Amino acid sequence: MVPKSQYPSIAAQLATASALSSLAGPVIGGGVAEKATWRWVFLLNVPAGLVTVALLYLSVPANFPYQGQSLSVAPTFKQKISRASLARLDLSGALLLLGATLLLVTVLLEAANQFSWYSMTAIAFFVLSGVLDLLFLKNKRIVTGEAWIGTLIISLLSGIPYNIIVIDIPQRLQTVAGISRLGTGIRLVPFNFMIALGCILINVFAMRTRIAPIYLVFAGSVIQLVGLSLISTLSSNDIMTPAPSVIYAWELLSGFGKGMVWGMLLVIPPHVVEHRDLAISSGALLRFRVFSGALGLALAWVVMNSYLASHLSHSFGSEYLAAVLQSTEAIKGFPLDVQRSVLEKFAEGYDLQMMILAAFTGLQVLCMGLLWRGKGQGGQICIVEVEEEELREGKEDETEKR
């Protein structure tokens, strides 16, 4: 839709739009869950999805991406739904990838809770997930290139902390500090706001300074690492009391660093992949981030469930422990002294999860080496050099016309 030179500005505009949803989502979700059942949170997405589809239908040109070209003809509706057109959709690949992901995430979420790691169910899920992954890769063309692989890995690692933070921080505040669902949604606003702000500012900064993305992604990763490390230092003794105000500063720090990383990753693919792979690479980048978010959340709960089971099993029977693992509301039925000891273990478990997030972010910093280009490789990736080439080509065309 737009030339490469405008990608940073378009990315900033998209970040502005996503800011509204990121800010409103936790607040609306918390308010709805507090006044009604949690299912309504998901049902609200139905009308929102219909509006989105309608807007896409009205705004995307009929002959996209060949609009404006005299030799191209917009296909009719019959042609769009023809067998030849539908054959271009990789339905089998989509189903294989979806099945592999669902099986892997399911076994990670339910292991050590509904069934053991060594049960036939867990083993079968792991094996089937691996088989589906192999079938998916069998007939696929693998896009190579060290810079592109590095971008994918960084996107994968950067997606892990997001889902855990937006779920664990509210749950920690509800469970340990006793804050309402709406209140926890409001307290998550600084984190999401800074992600959006970081995406906007980093793209504007990159356009004006022309600093190579590798340095900006590295700076964002370090800032994110510092913020997550600080969140993991929350005291496990501050239970049944309001959350310390310093958590908002750490949310701001973590969110801004993540926004810097995400903002830059959006504009790197056009400069590291071939033109024919541009659409696929953009989709893969977002897919890796979403997948890693689901995978990270599953891993976080494996850690939490295992930690609680090992530290509370000596104090509770299996029935009470299972009730606590299923719902934290069960804690309210315990005596106050028991509640306090259980909540301390929950707080320690949440801190452990944040330490794991910091470790993943540290690995993300190390993977920055995959984006490095020496002098023999043409120098570092630059997201504004295309603008200069386009201007130069435009001037040459004008000269030829004259």
Automatic annotation (TrEMBL):
It comes from the Eukaryota. It is found in: Membrane. GO terms for molecular function: transmembrane transporter activity. Keywords: Membrane, Transmembrane, Transmembrane helix. Pfam families: MFS_1. The chain crosses the membrane at residues 40-60, 89-109, 115-136, 148-169, 189-207, 214-235, 247-268, 288-308. InterPro entries: MFS, MFS_trans_sf. It is a multi-pass membrane protein. Its main location: membrane. Coiled coil: none annotated. GO terms for cellular component: plasma membrane. This is Major facilitator superfamily (MFS) profile domain-containing protein.
